[in-house]
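User: I'm writing a tutorial on reading structure tokens. Could you give me a worked example: one chain, its sequence, then its tokens, then a sentence or two explaining what the tokens reveal?
Assistant: Sure. Here is the example chain.
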Amino acid sequence: MALTVPVTAEELRDPAGSALAARAVDARKSYGRGTARVDALDGVNLGIPRGRFTAVMGPSGSGKSTLMHCMAGLDTLTSGSMLLGQTELSGLGDRQLTRLRRDRVGFVFQAYNLVPMLTALENIRLPLDIAGRRVDTEWLDRVVSTMGLGDRLRHRPAELSGGQQQRVACARALVSRPEIVFADEPTGNLDSRAGTEILRFLGDSVRDTGQTVVMVTHDPATASHADIVVFLSDGRVVDQLAEPTREGVLERMKALRDPGVPGGHA
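And here are its predicted structure tokens:
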């Protein structure tokens, strides 16, 4: 049976057990007022299956990065609900949100967000050190090896290439084995070989350890590594594709861009 994600408010308000790692229920995010108002999210209903690799795609301005930031607790909704597991994010104070992001969420930023005065290894270990948690050295070694960072661990970010900094950011998000990992264009600054290695590792972490991964990408080849692709347009979920291939994703994206194509959205 093909994997599908819940996309109605009714399904999401009464999820089956712990099958969903995160939920957006009638999620709305607006910027500005009056004629200058922009609705980045316009009533998004979406459930993220636990232990799956989900890609989120859509045309520029579709709301995919805004959705990810709100799901990760990095931004707040104008209205609606955003839940991580059974935790409603809008009900948390600043300190509680900080703790949730530290302990339960991993995030790979487009801009890396590495601490310039720390070495690569110190940046990777930072979430664990802040939380006072013990480092699983076997897992750390596996992450470092997969990212090809073994000979760069003592280097600071300024001494690393953009691609190497991105690998450090990916390793930092994964090393604490968080409840859910959000990745914003995780291969955007990598060559095809390095990007493929990271995508395979993300996929292996899902299959081997039950990690939940949500990735925003504009690249059909990157999206094809996911278990399911969710498509956004104009701030709404408009389609999804299980067991995606590059060609299948391209076809769906073309339909989103061209309302004249059968299945396209005006």
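What the tokens reveal: The longest strand covers residues 20-31. The chain has a mean pLDDT of 89.
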